């Protein structure tokens, strides 16, 4: 019999009995909770977390309940769960209930469905890291990815490659055909570059007509293969409306070395790209 009658509460709630052996078993679930979670008393009351959800999820639930008991304080956190009512985000507040002997005998849980709020946050973060024209990552996301790539390479000793791609003579395209055609060219270049890299590589637009990629290629031989693949994807005219445009793209690459910072590897790739651009212009 639960110590707290949560059926009288108008907010989604549940209670967990805390055994003397430290076990956790649900002993209450109110109608407001059922309405939002899809769970029923028959599904959970009398059961432990491991009795009704996958082990990995149950382990997280038990860890939260144990933290509440050990701290003897209210705990509040956000969690993502797949329940009969669907995949949702919750803000959960746990409050310890102390028995007459001073031992925590029960946990009162109050939950709020925050799924719409979390989805809005995720969409906002996605927009903050996405180039609105091409749909690929923007410079802000690339800089974060590059920092992570350098940190991982330092930890593992496995190098990676940065490739920079710059559209040749892009300004005359805009001046001759208009910015609408120029935007279409950038989109097409982005699509071709994306088709030339692996799913695990990262591509971004980091400037007006400049793109950058972080590739897993870890040797000069692997870089040569990657660049050949990219050049193959970039070859051929771009069909923009009624126009067939021959658009060149200069590529430059740099293999990360242990002493290199993010600025160092970018500078090396940039220098290689401009050497290629000079050769193409000659």
Overall CATH class of the largest domain: Alpha Beta
So what's the overall shape? Answer: elongated
Strand residues, percent: 25-35%
User: How much helix, percentage-wise, in residues?
Assistant: 40-55%
The tally of helices reads 10
- The H-and-E topology, N to C, reads as EEHHHHEEEHHEHHEEHEEEH
- Using only C-alpha atoms, the radius of gyration works out to 28 Å
The biggest sheet amounts to: 5 strands, antiparallel
Total beta strands? 11
The total domain count is 2
| CATH homologous superfamily grouping of the largest domain | Reverse transcriptase/Diguanylate cyclase domain
Structure classification: alpha+beta
Strand order of the largest sheet: 2-1-5-4-3
> What is the correct CATH architecture of the largest domain?
2-Layer Sandwich
Unreliable spans are: none
* N/C terminus separation: 86 Å
Organism: Plantimonas leprariae
Protein name: GGDEF domain-containing protein
Pfam families: GGDEF, PAS_4
InterPro entries: Biofilm_reg_signaling (IPR052155), GGDEF_dom (IPR000160), Nucleotide_cyclase (IPR029787), PAS (IPR000014), PAS-assoc_C (IPR000700), PAS-like_dom_sf (IPR035965), PAS_4 (IPR013656), Rev_trsase/Diguanyl_cyclase (IPR043128)
Describe the structure.
It is built from 10 helices and 11 strands. With 282 residues, it is of the alpha+beta class. It has 2 domains: 6-120, Beta-Lactamase; 129-281, 2-Layer Sandwich (Alpha-Beta Plaits), CATH 3.30.70. It has a 5-stranded antiparallel β-sheet, sandwiched between helices. It has a 4-stranded antiparallel β-sheet with strand order 7-8-6-11, sandwiched between helices. The chain has a two-stranded antiparallel sheet with strand order 9-10. The longest helix has 20 residues, at 262-281. InterPro entries: Biofilm_reg_signaling, GGDEF_dom, Nucleotide_cyclase, PAS, PAS-assoc_C, PAS-like_dom_sf, PAS_4, Rev_trsase/Diguanyl_cyclase.
